[in-house]
Amino acid sequence: MTLPEIAVGGLGPGSTDFISAAVHQLVETYPTYLRTRNHPSADAFDQLESFDDLYDSSDLITDVYSAIVDRLVSEAAKHGKIAYLVPGSPLVAEHTVELLRRSNEIELKILPGISFLDLAWDRLQIDPVASTVTIVDGQKFEREIIGLSGPVLVAQCDDRFVLSDIKLSLDVEGPPTVTVLQRLGSDNEAVFEIDWEELDREIDPDHLTSLWIPQFPLTRSGSAMMELHSLVGRLRAECPWDREQTHSSLIAGLLEEAGEVVEAIKLMDHGEPSVEGLIEELGDLLFHVMLHSAIGEEDGLFDVADVAHGIRDKMIRRHPHIFDRDPHTPMPTKQQLVDQWAAIKASEHNNR
User: Fold this and answer.
1) What angle do CA 251, 244, 241 make, to 5 degrees?
2) The domain containing residue 24 runs over which residues?
């Protein structure tokens, strides 16, 4: 059985000059739908139906995207093949395309296009690969900057609430000056620098606003971990006791520290609040983790970054209901989550 097809094209970053001939051909050949008219290049297709009514009918953007996909799948089933046009490139920060990829009811064809990123690299005069740029979503800024360093481009900075959250998320001395990139490729393009404290005051944000941070400063937590890593390295180099420790020799102390963390938690549960005590015991346990990581680093086997990335990746794998859930399916019950965790864990062990 042949599945209906949806071909997705991009409107480019801002000017109609960036709309490809292939996109124009799609519009001339198939029933075509716009995700939104809230984009400069959408004016080239006045005759097309958009999904702006869905934006007005829901408070949650995730619900809007799900509704768009539902309607697209329905229209594809009706016509056999349709075209769908999105701002920028279908391959960059386009959540509806991510949802369409998960659908088993349609065939999906993507026409790559020019995104705002291409113009951003030109305006900033950088090579993102050579500069090892990280791109983050402004609406997830606080979560995505953990452990981050180096140059960062922040996309999706579409309102003052997002800018305020970004500003307040960065707790460092001497916050950076940023470059604001707005409406790149359009007639009213704007590129200018601004102080960090003025992010939510001096910018009139829209859906085509991004921020460039040439050197992302270490957050308070990142700085603390760097300092602890440096301290442990010095102890391994200069302290006779720390220098002669091995993974095996640390086992007894590791078990003791884990037990003391448990005792500190129990004291708090029994009405003897001692946040300082729990902080101290967790610190002792963290020191063991850092010491084991330092030994692994000296042996050329692993370092603390491998440990952090390993547990991060494991948690993502074991939480598909958070990181890979179809928005149309309900959240699993607590028992289903326990069963899911056990099944994923067993699968991981079987694949080792």
Assistant:
1) 90
2) 5-114
Q: Is residue 299 part of a domain?
A: yes
In this structure, the number of other CB atoms found within 10 A of the CB of residue 303 comes to 15
Q: Which residue in the block uniquely carries the two structure tokens 């069963």?
A: 339
CB-side exposure of 46: number of CA atoms within 13 Å? Answer: 1
First to last CA, the chain: 38
Residues 6+ apart with CB under 8 A from 63: 327
Shared domain check, 195 and 124: yes
- Residues 283-321 pLDDT 10s: 999 999 999 999 998 988 988 878 888 898 899 899 998
Strands in 150-155's sheet, in edge-to-edge order, are 134-137, 150-155, 209-216, 177-182, 190-195
Say if residue 43 is in the same domain as residue 11: yes
- What is the number of structural domains in the chain? 3
**62 closest CA partner among 104, 101, 108, 96:** 96
49-72 pLDDT tens trace: 999 999 888 777 888 999 999 999
Q: What is the mean pLDDT of residues 218-245?
A: 84
- CA separation for the pair 176, 179 (Å, rounded): 10
What does the pLDDT look like over 131-160, one tens digit per residue? Answer: 999 999 998 887 777 767 789 999 989 888
β strands within the chain, DSSP E: 5-10, 32-34, 49-50, 81-86, 107-110, 134-137, 150-155, 177-182, 190-195, 209-216
Phi-psi category of 152—alpha, beta or left, where left has phi over 0 and alpha has psi -120 to 50? beta
Six token digits for residue 94: 């386009």
The DSSP result for 224-262, as a single string, is HHHHHHHHHHHHHHH-HHHHT--TTTTHHHHHHHHHHHH
Residues 58 and 41 in one domain: yes
CA neighbours within 13 Å on the CB side: how many for 85? 33
Return the ∠ at Cα 303 (arms to 297 and 307), rounded to 5°.
150
- 178, 212 Cβ separation under 8 angstroms: yes
Q: What's the distance, CA 351 to chain centroid? A: 27
